[in-house]
Amino acid sequence: MNVSANSASGRLAETRSTALFQLAIELPAAVLARTLGTDITVAVKWQRAAFGTWAAYTARSAAESPIPAGKDQTRHGPR
Fold first, then answer.
1. With 60 as the cut, is the pLDDT of residue 41 above it?
2. Among the four 29, 34, 61, 74, which has the fewest Cβ within 10 Å?
């Protein structure tokens, strides 16, 4: 396998993982398992991994945010 094929293969695996993480976030485990044709335990593991990743991301983002916690600066409702 040449270098460009290895590179494409790596990008494909990364893209596949990203898609699986997104599905794990959006779908219930039973639907995810049925959709992917996997066992429910595999779907649950994907969900735990995805939620763990997103929980760490949101916690890190909140820590770096210039907006103090609890101070939502978006406007809700009519102006």
1. yes
2. 74
